[in-house]
Design goal:
Strand order of the largest sheet: 2-1-6
Structural class: alpha+beta
Helix content: 25-40%
Number of strands: 6
CATH class of one domain: Alpha Beta
Bound molecules: zinc ion
Strand content: 25-35%
Distance between the termini: 44 Å
CATH topology of one domain: hypothetical protein PF0899 fold
Largest sheet: 3 strands, mixed
Amino acid sequence: MHEMSIAQSILDIVKEEMAKHQVEKLAAINIAVGALSAVVPSSLTFCYNVLVDKTEFAETRLNVRVVPLTYSCYACGHDFTSEEMTFECPACGEADPMLTAGRDLTIENIEVAETEKE
Ligand SMILES: [Zn+2]
């Protein structure tokens, strides 16, 4: 189950960001997972919940947004999304459109929890 190591690396990156910005508590971590990235969102949130149990992240939600496969056609410039791998532009029929999104896992942003100021 590689989701466990992915969840761990997300936490590592987030912790670095928090240290950099002197943030102590997060409300949520928002990530985007490409449909082609081979990450199962439910499995990732499960692993995350296991990892953060009884830590400072126990109340921090992990929100996973699935990014569909997005293509751009070289020939006619048509941008389109697809549920699966495609090798033909639906507008002009040109072969081999360029995959522009849907392959990566990215941390979109982190939401800082409101803390009481003294
Ligand atoms: Zn085209």
